[in-house]
Amino acid sequence: MLPALLLAQRRAMRATRFVSSSMHAALVKSDTSPVTAADFASQAVLSLTLSEDDAARGIPILGEEDADSLARPENAELRKLVRSAVAFAFERDSMREHDVLNAIQDAHSPYATSEARFFTLDPVDGTKGFLRGGQYAIALALIEDGTPVLAALGCPHLPPFSLDGAMDSINNHAVGTLQYAERANGAFEVDLQVPSASPRMIRAREWKSGSTIRVAESVEAAHSAHDECAKALALLSCPIASLRLDSQAKYALVARGDADLYIRMPTRAGYFECIWDHAAGVLIAQEAGARACDLNGNALDFSAGERLFNNLGVLCGDEELITQLLAALCR
Fold first, then answer.
1. Which is it for strands 240-244 and 213-217: parallel, antiparallel or unpaired?
2. Residue 177 known to be catalytic
3. 232-282: per-residue pLDDT in tens?
């Protein structure tokens, strides 16, 4: 199924780029987070592309968005933009509204997690980053028996390959990369701006004890407790180089050695992470040699439903660094 996932990613990135060059109003969901034409178009494209593949067809999909709000009469202009973006992704003159809405809804199966095998996707992870022209990601993963086994992560604004530590300039690029991984087969990255580029295997950076810790964190304070993250890292008494960016692009930085650690601490009691926000990035980072776990050192469990109900927070990065951080947190 890997070729289907990569094709779906390339098409979905075409759709989001189409929307980014247009006027794009955002709807507000019940949790007050925004959803744009790019979110809807990307989910439709991913859904339609997977339905074309013999191996992927019929596997249930748990995507973040549903089509209910988009289908309302007052959102006719937004639906038109979504249809145009999907048509652009498939290099067609037009798409039928009915087909697009059905594709979005088909990829929002509430029963997907009850199956032993299902896809989970976030059509635009980091919508606020997308809206302000920053980092965002298109995340797609196949889950089998509670474990990600196949993943593709498209990052349309992430420069290709390693930044060699020049993380302060990351948001000044708009070239685009695609990372992917298959369980036990390594992690790879493709430079999307070079049509003939071959995939390159990527590896996480080996952190040296006592050296500077390059940390990737969320931009939004609502997504991760920044003060608590700073307190936790201060326990290691190491210099810190912090980079805040939206989306699972943070996992991409860890996977290719631009960051030593991705840390996400709960902002409130009882909060659990959504699986589509982590599944693809976790597998890619793990296949690149990084460790992914929660704040108690437990492996991330994708078998508990739509959220990581058996985990508290997220850590992903160098094994030794995480070992030291967990020990410090337990003191």
1. parallel
2. no
3. 888 899 999 988 899 999 999 999 999 999 999 887 888 999 999 999 999
CB 318 within 8 A of CB 204: yes
Q: What is the pTM of this model?
A: 0.93
CB 288 within 8 A of CB 202: yes
- Pairing outcome for strands 117-125 and 137-144: antiparallel
The distance in angstroms from the start CA to the end CA of the chain is 45
Delimiting residues of CATH 3.40.190.80 domain(s) in the chain: 213-329
SS3 183: coil
Per the annotation, the verdict on 16 as an active-site residue is no
Out of 36, 39, 49, 191, the active site residue is: 39
Q: Are 253 and 153 in contact (CB under 8 A)?
A: no
The CATH class given to the 213-329 domain equals: alpha beta
Q: What is the mean pLDDT of residues 101-115?
A: 93
Catalytic residue among 127, 258, 294, 318: 127
Across 32-38, average pLDDT: 85
CATH 3.30.540.10 at 2-201, yes or no: yes
